[in-house]
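Narrative of activities, Objective 1.

The group set out to show that a structural description can be obtained from nothing but a protein's sequence at a throughput compatible with the screening campaign. Below is one input-output pair from the validation batch, recorded exactly as produced.
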Amino acid sequence: MTFGERLRRFRKENGMTQEHLANCIGVAKTTITGYEKNSREPNVIRIAKLAEALGVTGNDLLGIEKPKTADNRIEKQSLRLLSSFNKLNDIGQKEATKRVEELTHIEKYTNKEIDHSIPIAAHYDGEMDEEEERKIQQDLEEL
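Output recorded for this entry:
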Protein backbone atom coordinates (compact mmCIF):
# COMPACT_ATOMS: atom_id res chain seq x y z
CA MET A 1 0.00 0.00 0.00
CA THR A 2 1.37 3.43 -0.92
CA PHE A 3 1.61 6.50 1.30
CA GLY A 4 -1.28 8.07 -0.62
CA GLU A 5 -3.48 5.01 -0.15
CA ARG A 6 -2.78 4.92 3.58
CA LEU A 7 -3.45 8.65 3.90
CA ARG A 8 -6.75 8.31 2.06
CA ARG A 9 -7.78 5.30 4.18
CA PHE A 10 -7.03 7.08 7.48
CA ARG A 11 -8.76 10.25 6.28
CA LYS A 12 -11.91 8.35 5.34
CA GLU A 13 -11.83 6.33 8.59
CA ASN A 14 -11.94 9.68 10.40
CA GLY A 15 -14.84 10.87 8.24
CA MET A 16 -12.82 13.77 6.89
CA THR A 17 -12.89 15.36 3.45
CA GLN A 18 -9.68 16.37 1.72
CA GLU A 19 -10.64 19.99 2.34
CA HIS A 20 -11.21 19.43 6.06
CA LEU A 21 -7.87 17.63 6.44
CA ALA A 22 -6.15 20.38 4.48
CA ASN A 23 -7.64 23.02 6.80
CA CYS A 24 -6.52 21.04 9.86
CA ILE A 25 -2.88 21.08 8.79
CA GLY A 26 -2.84 24.47 7.05
CA VAL A 27 -2.41 23.50 3.40
CA ALA A 28 -4.48 23.72 0.23
CA LYS A 29 -6.87 20.91 -0.70
CA THR A 30 -4.77 20.30 -3.83
CA THR A 31 -1.82 19.42 -1.58
CA ILE A 32 -3.82 16.61 0.05
CA THR A 33 -4.98 15.48 -3.40
CA GLY A 34 -1.36 15.35 -4.53
CA TYR A 35 -0.35 13.30 -1.48
CA GLU A 36 -3.19 10.84 -2.04
CA LYS A 37 -2.33 10.48 -5.75
CA ASN A 38 1.36 10.05 -4.85
CA SER A 39 2.30 12.95 -7.10
CA ARG A 40 3.56 14.94 -4.08
CA GLU A 41 5.48 13.89 -0.99
CA PRO A 42 5.06 15.58 2.39
CA ASN A 43 8.06 16.61 4.45
CA VAL A 44 8.59 15.33 7.99
CA ILE A 45 6.74 18.25 9.57
CA ARG A 46 3.70 17.69 7.35
CA ILE A 47 3.73 13.95 8.11
CA ALA A 48 3.65 14.80 11.82
CA LYS A 49 0.75 17.24 11.29
CA LEU A 50 -1.16 14.73 9.18
CA ALA A 51 -0.65 12.01 11.78
CA GLU A 52 -1.85 14.26 14.59
CA ALA A 53 -4.95 15.36 12.64
CA LEU A 54 -5.80 11.75 11.80
CA GLY A 55 -5.06 10.29 15.24
CA VAL A 56 -2.37 7.94 13.94
CA THR A 57 1.41 7.84 14.09
CA GLY A 58 3.87 8.91 11.44
CA ASN A 59 4.90 5.26 11.22
CA ASP A 60 1.29 4.34 10.43
CA LEU A 61 1.23 6.84 7.55
CA LEU A 62 4.59 5.65 6.26
CA GLY A 63 3.62 1.98 6.51
CA ILE A 64 6.28 1.15 9.08
CA GLU A 65 4.85 -1.70 11.08
CA LYS A 66 5.73 -2.71 14.60
CA PRO A 67 4.91 -6.17 15.92
CA LYS A 68 1.25 -6.23 16.86
CA THR A 69 0.77 -6.37 20.61
CA ALA A 70 -2.09 -5.54 22.91
CA ASP A 71 -0.15 -2.47 24.08
CA ASN A 72 0.17 -1.17 20.51
CA ARG A 73 -3.56 -1.55 19.91
CA ILE A 74 -4.37 0.20 23.17
CA GLU A 75 -1.88 2.95 22.39
CA LYS A 76 -3.44 3.46 18.95
CA GLN A 77 -6.94 3.61 20.43
CA SER A 78 -5.79 6.05 23.08
CA LEU A 79 -4.14 8.30 20.51
CA ARG A 80 -7.22 8.30 18.30
CA LEU A 81 -9.46 9.04 21.29
CA LEU A 82 -7.15 11.82 22.50
CA SER A 83 -6.97 13.32 19.02
CA SER A 84 -10.76 13.41 18.77
CA PHE A 85 -11.06 14.80 22.31
CA ASN A 86 -8.58 17.60 21.53
CA LYS A 87 -10.70 18.69 18.56
CA LEU A 88 -13.52 19.57 20.98
CA ASN A 89 -13.97 22.93 22.66
CA ASP A 90 -14.19 23.19 26.46
CA ILE A 91 -17.91 22.48 26.51
CA GLY A 92 -17.50 19.46 24.22
CA GLN A 93 -14.62 18.11 26.33
CA LYS A 94 -16.69 18.38 29.51
CA GLU A 95 -19.61 16.60 27.82
CA ALA A 96 -17.32 13.85 26.41
CA THR A 97 -15.79 13.29 29.84
CA LYS A 98 -19.26 13.07 31.38
CA ARG A 99 -20.39 10.51 28.77
CA VAL A 100 -17.30 8.32 29.22
CA GLU A 101 -17.81 8.41 32.99
CA GLU A 102 -21.45 7.35 32.45
CA LEU A 103 -20.33 4.41 30.28
CA THR A 104 -18.04 3.16 33.06
CA HIS A 105 -21.13 2.54 35.19
CA ILE A 106 -22.86 0.35 32.57
CA GLU A 107 -21.77 -3.28 32.95
CA LYS A 108 -21.86 -4.21 29.26
CA TYR A 109 -19.28 -1.49 28.47
CA THR A 110 -16.79 -2.21 31.25
CA ASN A 111 -13.96 -4.70 31.64
CA LYS A 112 -14.49 -7.44 34.17
CA GLU A 113 -11.17 -6.64 35.86
CA ILE A 114 -10.63 -5.59 39.43
CA ASP A 115 -10.25 -1.87 40.01
CA HIS A 116 -6.80 -1.83 41.63
CA SER A 117 -7.26 1.74 42.76
CA ILE A 118 -9.68 0.55 45.45
CA PRO A 119 -7.88 -0.90 48.47
CA ILE A 120 -8.98 -4.38 49.48
CA ALA A 121 -8.71 -5.42 53.13
CA ALA A 122 -9.39 -8.70 54.85
CA HIS A 123 -9.49 -9.91 58.42
CA TYR A 124 -9.13 -13.46 59.63
CA ASP A 125 -9.38 -14.24 63.34
CA GLY A 126 -8.57 -17.94 63.01
CA GLU A 127 -12.17 -19.18 63.12
CA MET A 128 -14.27 -19.79 60.03
CA ASP A 129 -17.36 -21.90 59.52
CA GLU A 130 -18.08 -23.81 56.30
CA GLU A 131 -20.44 -21.09 54.98
CA GLU A 132 -17.81 -18.35 55.37
CA GLU A 133 -15.21 -20.55 53.71
CA ARG A 134 -17.59 -21.28 50.80
CA LYS A 135 -18.28 -17.54 50.32
CA ILE A 136 -14.57 -16.70 50.30
CA GLN A 137 -13.89 -19.48 47.79
CA GLN A 138 -16.72 -18.18 45.59
CA ASP A 139 -15.31 -14.64 45.76
CA LEU A 140 -11.85 -15.90 44.81
CA GLU A 141 -13.24 -17.82 41.83
CA GLU A 142 -14.99 -14.67 40.60
CA LEU A 143 -11.65 -12.86 40.60
